[in-house]
Amino acid sequence: MNITTTLSQAVADALKNLYGIETDAKTIVLQDTRKEFKGDYTLVVFPYVKQARKSPEAVANEIGEAVKAALPLVEGFNVIKGFLNFEVADSYWTSFVAEKAADVNFGMAEVDPNEAPVVVEYSSPNTNKPLHLGHIRNNLLGWSVSQLLAANGSNVKKVNLVNDRGIHICKSMLAWLRYGNGETPESSGMKGDHLVGKYYVEFDKHYKEEVKHLMESGVEEEQAKKEAPLMVEAQSMLKRWEEGDKEVRALWEKMNGWVYAGFDETYNRLGVGFDKVYYESNTYLLGKELVQKGLDMGVLFRKEDGSVWCDLTGDGLDQKLLLRKDGTSVYMTQDLGTALLRHKDFGAERLIYVVGNEQDYHFKVLKLILGKLGFEWADKVYHLSYGMVELPNGKMKSREGTVVDADDLIDEMEKTAEEMSREHGKNDELSPEEQKHLYHILALGALKYFILKVDPTKNMLFNPAESIDFNGNTGPFIQYTHARIRSIVRKAGDVETLSAVSVTMNEKERGVVKTLHALPETVAAAAAAYSPAMVANYAYDLAKAFNSFYQDTPILREEDAQLKHFRVQLCVMVANALKNTMNILGIEVPERM
RNA sequence: GGCCCCGUAGCUCAGCUGGAUAGAGCAACUGCCUUCUAAGCAGUAGGUCCUGCGUUCGAAUCGCAGCAGGGUCACCA
Q1: Checking CA distances to A308, which of A77, A163, A448, A495 falls within 20 to 30 Å?
Q2: Is residue A401's beta carbon less than 7 angstroms from any atom in nucleic acid strand B?
Q3: Which candidate, A13, A49, A50, places its Cα nearest to that of A28?
Q4: Which 540-579 residues of chain A approach strand B with CB closer than 7 Å?
């Protein structure tokens, strides 16, 4: 059993025996003892002094005595004001290391593939322009949360819902027909998604001119925006698409094909992927039967003009449109349909949507309506709502050209990683391929860590200069620590398994061991909070604890064989823990750098 | 304007269900490489935890009000 649960139980027993206070052991909180005091776990006794009718010091001492008598593992305790610090015997920590050192997956749960899956949707791009920094946060989060839930034992399925149809795609198609002169990714050497994005911008440029001209000839702005010939034509193209017009469909397939090739390249570089990809062109009609069902059930209603709505005023929200008066569906309608489809496809235990917080309202409504439609799994829908990424000079605006392109950013990071590595000159003996791979994982390590270390729910500032920093609280720092440890472990050769565990630890070793010990509970807490940031912070703490230990404690140079083995095993455990936690973040960790 | 989120060191961020003197990194300044990788370690300096009131033995954390910032309120997705 885990030491903290054992301790909690002993405390609960003591409370009952000493003062007749009945408590559930689970409600007893033990916190890590602060560094400046002696001890490992601290119980705050203030909550019990009233019932015990004694001073905090007296209560702490009495509980301390009782627990110490009950648990041999508790070697001693000290009391400072109302704080009871338990001192856990070294033997507990050393046997923990001896037991777990050989477990390369310590702290990582096994996944049962037969269990009902947790379905995570993320990425979900539009196919009219390339991926940018905002998408990067989404992709990294989606991937990492999937890894995190899997590390906590969930059977995770990652899905992507590609928005491959709609007016925005028609705009790119139309502009390409008009101004493209048959340009292709091959003919131009341009990545497919960038090429299509180029024509999306092109459309916007010409469209704005048309609107401007119309307004100059006296047309109202709103009217002009609707009447501009390009817009009219894009609309008619969308209509032809929906009617299955062969020509339009062929062009649509061609250009989407370019985009997918481009996306795949970016996904590969980012190291993310999916178990299943849905396309909106296949799912956008879903949800209409649900509307009928809702009408039959009386949870939806039809207005005089024929449009269908859901009344959410009883829930403190507005009325929500589900079918236009012409019978066509809206985003919400589709999302209801795809949720049902996904529920059926996977028999999912949970449906997680990694979508920015600007859609909080949408998902609130989605869950409500699913509930009203009688789906008991509505409360299994979880919107993993993440904050926006801002730049030092403000928000990203595609129209103002202030977007940070995903591919450019990765290129930039790789270039910097190469420069930094060459400067250090430690990797000259690696082959060119190995060097290239190293630069890649360092670049992505820096980028991913920079983004994932921030609490997902919070808006974050992306400062390009800081993101490529390789010192301090960064991905490369942790990668470096791993490489350093691996170097020691390689030099140590085969390490015997520790049999006797009677070593005396120094404070630095204790720090490392205790941090390692906290790995399983950290993963569990992070998974419960859907927060890769908690894992990132843990990895950083562990690396820091190790480096501090490494600095002034001999490992291979240690003469005492027992101690040396113990320390090497610590190294092995830390290396594994760093590798596994970084893997949760989608960050690869090098053997040397 | 209604609803939602947010405000911690010069900057970027931690601080879990309330607990001891609020912590890291960057930037600034000091030291430490003939010794297991200095992408490191050790240290100095830097705070009205936005403001006020309240709950409590105890508040950065909970509640209310105010101020500042952001998001959202489409027959767009």
Answers
A1: A163
A2: no
A3: A13
A4: 540, 544, 547-548, 550-557
Architecture of domain A406-584: Orthogonal Bundle (1.10)
| Strand ranges inside A135-289, DSSP E | 156-162, 276-279
Closest CA relative to residue A62, chosen from A23, A27, A10: A10
Which nucleotide is nearest, taking the CA of residue A29 and each C1'?
B17
Nucleotide nearest to A389 (CA to C1'): B70
Q: State residue A195's pLDDT score.
A: 96
State the CB neighbour count (10 A cutoff) for residue A382.
16
The ipTM is: 0.96
Between the CA of A387 and the C1' of B64, what is the distance in angstroms? Answer: 27
Cα separation, A339 vs A283, in Å, equals 10
In Å, how far from its chain's centre is CA A388? 14
In chain A, % helix, strand, coil (3-state, to 5) comes to: 60, 10, 30
Which residue is nearest to the C1' sugar atom of B75, using CA? A324
CATH code of the domain occupying A3-88: 3.30.1360.70
CB A102 within 8 A of CB A565: no
> Start-end ranges of CATH 3.30.1360.70 in chain A?
3-88
Q: Is the CB of A430 under 7 A from strand B?
A: no
**Closest protein residue to B16 (Cα–C1'):** A525
- Which residue do the tokens 């450019």 mark? A408
- Report how far residue A43's alpha carbon sits from residue A301's, in angstroms, rounded to the nearest whole number: 57
Residues of CATH 1.10.730.10 domain(s) within chain A?
Answer: 406-584
- Tell me what pLDDT residue A400 has: 63
Say what the pLDDT of residue A316 is.
81
Contact (Cβ atoms closer than 8 angstroms) between residue A88 and residue A3: yes
SS3 (DSSP) at A190: coil
Q: What would the pLDDT profile of A383-392 be if each residue is shown by its tens digit?
A: 999 999 998 8
* Cβ atoms of residues A124 and A432 within 8 Å: no
Q: What are phi and psi of A83, to 5 degrees?
A: -110, 125
Closest CA to A132 of A456, A402, A358: A402
Calculated CA dihedral for residues A175, A178, A179, A185, nearest 10 degrees: 70
Mean pLDDT computed over A287-291: 92
Those residues with Cβ within 8 angstroms of residue A321's Cβ, 6 or more apart along the chain or in another chain? A307, A308, A309, A330, A332
Q: Are the C-beta atoms of residues A391 and A462 closer than 8 Å to each other?
A: yes
Closest CA to A19 of A61, A62, A57: A62
Q: Which nucleotide is nearest to A78 (CA to C1')?
A: B20
Give the largest Cα separation in chain A, rounded.
93
Residues A320 and A351: beta-carbon distance below 8 Å: no
Q: Which of A332, A330, A322, A331 is nearest to A302 (CA)?
A: A322
Quick one: pLDDT at residue A399?
Answer: 61
What's the CA–C1' distance between A394 and B40, in Å?
35
Q: Cα separations (Å) of A468 from A48, A339, A414, A476?
A: 50, 39, 9, 10
Amino acid sitting at position A585: L
CA distance A436 to A420: 13
CA dihedral sign, ordered A284, A288, A291, A293? negative
